[in-house]
Amino acid sequence: MENSNRPKLEIRDLKVEYYTKTQTTVALEKVQLSVADGEFVSVVGPSGCGKSTLLKVVSGLLQPAEGAAYIDGQMVQGVPDQVGMVFQNDALLPWKTAFDNVRLPLEIKGLPRDEQIREAERLLKMVGLEGFRDYHPKQLSGGMRKRVALARTFAYDPDIYLMDEPFGPLDAQTRVKIGEEFLKIWEKVGKSVLFITHDIEEAIALSDRVIVMSARPGRIKAEFKINLKRPRPFYDIRFDPVFKELQREIWNQMSNEI
Ligand SMILES: Nc1ncnc2c1ncn2[C@@H]1O[C@H](COP(=O)(O)OP(=O)(O)OP(=O)(O)O)[C@@H](O)[C@H]1O
Ligand SMILES: [Mg+2]
């Protein structure tokens, strides 16, 4: 039976170290974090503080030195099938079209072919690329490639979305456009999200909670509940006084770390 009080994702007493021939780097220390079912949590923090490391532990790609991550109460060991990950430098398969990149996870899931086609078409439309289904990644702009990558993640439809700077190094305008689309879609599907960004405004606009990490070794330094109503306008919410106050407080926490 589902236990509704149990967090979807829980990280307990996490410590992660990297070893090279000459030194040991402590990337994360004493990290405690939980994400409720359907909750959107963002993590912000200075470059190199261990944000990507945190996601790699949750997605089972990295073994911690101490502590562990738990999904539905089960310790993560190896890659769990409930998670879907968008990496910091996400690559599409260059030899496949936009359409086939989105369709692939549906094929892996074993959906009948006509359903794969219907769903991939729906998702491409959702990210505004229905006119580009037969384009290959190199024929798309950087922002369009990111949108295909997002559509592909929605095709996996995981229980937990793990997203590492998913909007990447996009220009401000495209970033807002994609953020807007993503928020609209997420508000409909309502899955748990652990979202990494260095953009405070993006974090507030999207999240139920924003976590600030300290400089390396990364620890959780502060936590902010984002009490802004949903659905939210991804851009215009920035003019809300509550937003502005949160932005100031989070920036204060962050600026001490740089
Ligand atoms: N494979 C590795 N081997 C050794 N050290 C590593 C490795 N990967 C990461 N590190 C170190 O761990 C620390 C955290 O790296 P991580 O990539 O998690 O940072 P981040 O918060 O995601 O940074 P950014 O915001 O720049 O993406 C850094 O000091 C980095 O040098
Ligand atoms: Mg990173």
Q: What do you see in this structure?
A:
By secondary structure, the chain is an alpha/beta fold. The protein has two domains: about 160 residues, P-loop containing nucleotide triphosphate hydrolases (Rossmann fold, 3-Layer(aba) Sandwich), CATH 3.40.50.300; about 70 residues, no CATH class. Helix content is about 35%, strand content about 25%. The strands form two sheets. It has a six-stranded mixed β-sheet, sandwiched between helices. Helix 6 packs across helix 7. The longest helix is centred in the last third of the chain and has 18 residues. Bound molecules: adenosine-5'-triphosphate and magnesium ion (MG). The site of magnesium ion has 4 residues, from helix 1.
Quick description:
The protein is built from 7 helices and 10 strands.
List keywords for this structure.
258 residues; alpha/beta; Rossmann fold; 2 domains; four-stranded antiparallel beta sheet; binds adenosine-5'-triphosphate
When the domains are counted, the total is 2
Ligands bound, unique: adenosine-5'-triphosphate, magnesium ion
Main beta sheet: strand number and arrangement? 6 strands, mixed
The count of DSSP E runs of length 2 or more, i.e. the number of strands, is 10
Low-confidence stretches: none
How large a portion of the residues is in β-strands, by DSSP E?
A: 15-25%
CATH superfamily membership of the largest domain: P-loop containing nucleotide triphosphate hydrolases
- Do you know the CATH topology of the largest domain? Rossmann fold
What would you call the shape? globular
Strand order of the largest sheet: 6-7-8-3-9-10
User: What's the rounded overall pLDDT mean?
Assistant: 90
Q: What is the CATH first-level class name of the largest domain?
A: Alpha Beta
CATH architecture of the largest domain: 3-Layer(aba) Sandwich
| Number of contiguous helices | 7
